[in-house]
Amino acid sequence: MQQDKNKKQKQDSPAPQSRRPLLFWIILALSIATLIYVTLAPSLLSGNASETEVSYDTFLSHLEKGYIEKVEIRSNQVRYTLTKEGENALQEQAKEKAQQQAEASPSALPEQESLFGFRILGQGDAGNENGTAWKLPTAASAKKEYFAYLVGDEKLTDRLQAAGVTFSAVSEERSILFYMILQYGLPLLVFGLILAFLTRRLGKVGAGGGLMGFGKSNARSVEGSDITTTFKDVAGQDEAKESLQEIVSYLHDPRKYAEVGAKMPRGALLYGPPGTGKTLLARAVAGEAGVPFLSISGPEFVELFVGMGASKVRDLFKEAREKAPCIVFIDEIDAVAKKRDGMGSNDEREQTLNQLLSEMDGFEENSGVIVLAATNRPDSLDKALLRPGRFDRRVPVELPDQGGREAILRIHAAKVKTQGDIDLAAIARITPGASGADLANVVNEAALCAVRNGRRAVIQRDLEDSVDTALAGKQRKSMVISRKEKQTIAYHEVGHAIVTACQEHAAPVHKITIIPRTSGALGFTLQADEGEHFLMDKEEAFAKLVTLAGGRAAEQIMCHSVTTGASNDIEEATKLARAMITRYGMSDKLGFVAFEQMINPYLSSDTALTCSQDTAARIDREVIELVQRAYETALKLLEENRSRLEAIAGTLMEKETISGEEFEALMKQTDSGAETSEEPKET
After folding, report:
1. Could you tell me the CA-to-CA distances from 135 to 55, 128, 405 in Å, in that order?
2. Helical residues (DSSP H) of 118-236, grouped into ranges
3. Which of 303, 406, 464, 493 is flagged as catalytic?
4. Which of 1, 7, 104, 223 is the least crowded, having the fewest Cβ atoms under 10 Å away?
5. Residue 171: what pLDDT?
6. Predicted pLDDT of residue 178
């Protein structure tokens, strides 16, 4: 019931909406504010758009002729408007002067009408007695305003009174304040209004408090009562669960640890290959303890602006202290906690790391806040993060063994409908090296396979087919292969199987198939050990080399030629032979010395040589010699079992897939001389 309730809550909760970066909205608001300001400010700052600057002599001339209606006196300007008679007189003067210019210069350009209704006149237009050009408004335009700069005329007031002109003085302080508000206050006001609108429009962004939530962690918070994941949901990691059980006990009752004087670890680092269940373990700890669970990924601390990541760390731990006791989980912590080597340093990442170190140091003893972190690269973490007092406990979460794989399969198989006898132990045997995520995908793929085949329940065959899909991809049923190539593929795969069966230290054959796969494989031979092996001796390693060489050897014996089908076998054989010499110390000539090291054991198998060029050349010769010796051994074994190779290859061409039991039966029949199938004929 509780699970159904949680599922319903998840379904009812709205899906997270994709958000544009904060920088996008800031640029948008600035652009809109700038556009509005550029559009409105010129007209507001200029006051009357139809104003013209004239000389002071022109102003006095207009005053003497009685053209002026009203005057405003400012600190350094005199602004005035004309009477209707004065405007008409100036227009008449402009027309006469333009006509005179046209008669004197017939090639002169005619008057042009501007976009805003003003006539653009040339140099020396009437109305400007000094020959300075101005624009005269049309009858439909607003009344023109003229202004001239004062030149220290002490008799200006007397002249205005004598002309009977209405005049007034305007305070310049008010004017300056008005222009300052328009020039600076208007853009800020427009920008603020737009930003406020966007903030209300977008709503709150997680815990960040909306668009203005700078430096918020946005960590995903789940209350303890809503977490249904417990240690029962985690299989194949018994040692890891045991290490984390003390944390659960402390969160249940911290007083008993305080009474003894014990200090619980402030942090625990979960490390291991991808898909092993590190995040699941962290949620299980929170579920077992029944405390809030704050989760965030390391890359989420990385920000464009310096200091934002550190601010997120502060906000995360502030929230954790408010909800204590609780668990803080940082996934992929290597994104912000890499070693500081001084080369190509990143100020933002280093500040974030320093803030994380400071916050973990600031925990009070028995504060009730436990920090869990997960990584696939423990070797890349800064040493300051791993010292006692920070991440005191390091919990390896390795790939499960055979028993662990079976337990994981049982957990996931319980979630699907099955039918018949389901042998999960057999599936666990043929999936060595699979992680928990891989096994979950196997079960899910089996359910999909059952639906594709029209069944309402998963059977054993669906699980086996899903393993094949995970290893080599889906079947390419549309691929057409000629009989000759099919025959070569059959010899190749049977060669692997026979060489395996003829060796004491090789794993038994589980399946042989020549059905092409989407991964590019035209067939494969699957081996499965009866039990779990954690060590590999020199004889077992050499047996693997011989098995890998069996496919190419069969092609050479039966087809008297070789193909490109053994490319992957050659690659794997070369890697294994090099590892035997450089890392395992299995060379008689080079001895007990390591010449290369793994770069990252959890993410890749890449290695780096740590030897001189002369030694590297000796290693190459040793590798070639070892692989060649394995190939010669495979040729010898197949020559001795040529009749078996021919007979089993014929059966494989007919059936396309042979199980391990069928292969063993065919090996016994051919050993007793019984005929199993006609010998395949070349076409």
Report:
1. 15, 10, 91
2. 156-163, 172-180, 186-202
3. 493
4. 1
5. 64
6. 61
DSSP line for 384-450: HHHSTTSS-EEEE-----HHHHHHHHHHHHTTS-B-S---HHHHHHT-TT--HHHHHHHHHHHHHHH
Region 220-396: CATH code:
3.40.50.300
**Domain extents in the chain:** 49-170, 220-396, 402-472, 483-671
In this structure, which amino acid lies at residue 113?
Answer: E
Q: Do domains 220-396 and 402-472 have the same CATH topology?
A: no
Residue 51 is a catalytic residue = no
Measure the CA–CA gap between 660 and 524, rounded to whole angstroms: 13
Low pLDDT (below 50) residues in the chain: 1-19, 49, 108-141, 203-212, 672-683
Q: Report the alpha-carbon distance of residue 272 to residue 236 in Å, rounded.
A: 13
d(CA 411, CA 229): 13
CB 652 within 8 A of CB 494: yes
Instruction: Report the candidate in 224, 356, 220 with the shortest Cα–Cα distance to residue 292.
Output: 224
**Dihedral over Cα of 430, 436, 442, 443: its sign:** positive
SS3 458: strand
How far is the C-alpha of 30 from the C-alpha of 123, rounded, in Å? Answer: 42
Task: Give the C-alpha separation, 571 to 556, whole Å.
Answer: 18
Please, which residues bridge with residue 141 across strands? none
Q: Residue 419 and residue 455: Cα distance in Å, rounded?
A: 10
Cβ-contact 658, 624 below 8 angstroms: no
- Residues 437, 237: contact at Cβ < 8 Å? no
pLDDT tens-digit series, residues 524-574:
898 888 777 778 899 999 999 999 999 999 999 999 999 999 999 999 999
d(CA 311, CA 303): 10
CA distance 111 to 119: 7
Task: Return phi, psi of residue 459, to 5°.
Answer: -115, 175
| Contact status, residue 650 vs residue 681, Cβ threshold 8 Å | no
Could you write out the three-class secondary structure of 433-452?
CCCHHHHHHHHHHHHHHHHH
CA 265 to chain centre: 31
* Residue in 212, 184, 199, 188 with CA at minimum distance from that of residue 33: 188
Phi-psi region of 420 (alpha: psi -120 to 50; beta: other; left: phi over 0): left
Q: Could you tell me which CATH class the domain 483-671 is placed in?
A: mainly alpha
Domain 402-472 coded CATH 3.40.50.720: no
H or E element that contains 525: strand 524-527
Taking alpha carbons only, the member of 286, 279, 187 closest to residue 237 is: 279
* First-to-last C-alpha distance (Å) of the chain: 65
* Under 8 Å between Cβ of 133 and 121: yes
* Conformational region of residue 354, where left means phi above 0, alpha means psi within -120 to 50, and beta covers everything else: alpha
Provide the pairing of β-strand 267-271 with 369-375: parallel
CATH number attached to the domain at 49-170: 3.30.720.210
Radius of gyration of the chain (CA): 43
Rounded CA-CA distance 644/265 in Å is: 63
pLDDT in tens, 108-117: 444 444 333 3
